[in-house]
């Protein structure tokens, strides 16, 4: 199977993936730099929040904020890795040879990364709800937490596609062995 060398869909997919990787990488770097800043500036943040919220008893939820930042960094790194694997799959499609064992492994790993993101969202949502509870008297601060069915469907689809690619590459190897 050969692909058109100038397939616009593959080119667009590759560009989108590379741009998204750049955004995710930048966000991960910013959050990583922000972690120690929040830790070292917590007293200043608390003082400014007490004035802003007109609450002299306000206590900055440091552990929850740092926890969410750590969850976000882990999520961003995982998403970056997910897109890196997708870019490699796009490259094999562009080369005209997508049914290789490596793509089955990539899809399996993408499934595990998507599952990890779904599981990571549970404690992150808990921490966000905790912070929202602290700020419940403030207007405009809301947190929406719920089960993401599309993420669960993505996990299932990735694992099924991994099996399809594994089976397809095995069939191709059998066919090449008989020729």
UniProtKB/TrEMBL annotation:
Q: Which UniProt keywords apply?
A: Membrane, Transmembrane, Transmembrane helix
- Annotated transmembrane regions: 12-38, 58-83, 112-135, 147-165
Question: What is the protein name for this chain?
Answer: DUF2975 domain-containing protein
Q: What is the lineage of its organism?
A: Bacteria, Pseudomonadati, Pseudomonadota, Alphaproteobacteria, Sphingomonadales
